[in-house]
Amino acid sequence: MTGTIGILKAFCIDRTIPSEQADAILARMVDVGFYSPVRRVSDLL
User: What is the distance between the alpha carbons of residues 29 and 18, in angstroms, rounded to a whole number?
Assistant: First the structure.
């Protein structure tokens, strides 16, 4: 997976950020109009 979701997932895998923070970042992005086929990065881990 590439793109924004892939980057957030990679950050979680290498423990740069916790999955809860990635979920919060994605939620904020969706709130301002970002289209995402998933709602939680943690679902991809």
Answer: 17
Residue among 39, 32, 37 at smallest CA distance from 2: 37
| Number of compact structural domains in the chain | 1
Measured CA to CA, the distance from residue 18 to residue 37 in angstroms comes to 21
What single-letter amino acid sits at 27? A
Inter-residue contact 41 to 9 (CB < 8 Å): yes
Per-residue pLDDT tens over the stretch 2-17: 799 999 999 999 999 9
Supply the range of the domain harboring residue 33.
Answer: 3-44
pLDDT of residue 1: 62
